[in-house]
Amino acid sequence: MCPGSESVSDSKSDPNSNGWSRARGAVLKSLVLIGGALLVRRLTKSTTRWDHARIVAQSLSGEKFSKEQAVRDPDNYFNFRWLSCPAADMVDGSKVLYFEQAFWRTPHKPFRQRFFMVKPCAKELKCDVEVSTYAIRDAEEYKNFCDRPRDQRPEPEEVIGDIAEHLTTIHLKRCERGKRCLYEGSTPADGFPNSWQNGATRCTSELAVLKNNEIHAWDRGYDVDGNQVWGVKGGPYEFKPAPASSFDDAFNPLSFASQPLGKRIEGSFVLQE
User: Where is the segment annotated Disordered (predicted)?
Assistant: First the structure.
């Protein structure tokens, strides 16, 4: 091998080699700059008021059960089925969800039916998301709403027309870093008027949205003297999402459980009006 001939060969290949190196360096530099820009944009992009409302609406939607809690403490909690799905959008962008609750053994016989209206809190309020519950004008017409094919449900225009009496409003705030929840809040301290049973004059509700679409809800009724007359006392109901099922399509991001049964059920409602 002759050093001279090796030197000649190297000198002929240098331009191409240097050109390729420069081109590759330029490509890598561009990729780094683009990636950095995207990362900065992602880190600095703020979550809007409507983003918060959308997240809460999605979390409230779906099929959930209080099975684990009922197994742990069957004397105080039932295995309830929570079922909610998008029903309509209001002109101002508020999301209307249909909600029903039933015993897990009889899912098609709900004992509670409501509309949820989810929207950002007004700017003057110190909260992020407002969740209000409303009665349904003709609840029987909406029974098993989420279980039906879409073409067999009341149309959004009908849904809006069937929103009846306002029952409660809960103001949710983003949870502090390190907590299990994403959002939590309650009704005002004095609650809302309620004369549903046992001499109650008002009721309060607490709601927490956790990761993985888990929902905790705690509802209690009080008489004129401030005594709790209905609702569980040990803590909120804990609703965890059901395994993947036929409901998945319906709950994509929005475009959207010793005493007689009749007595036991009185204190176990969720988001009680």
Answer: 1-20
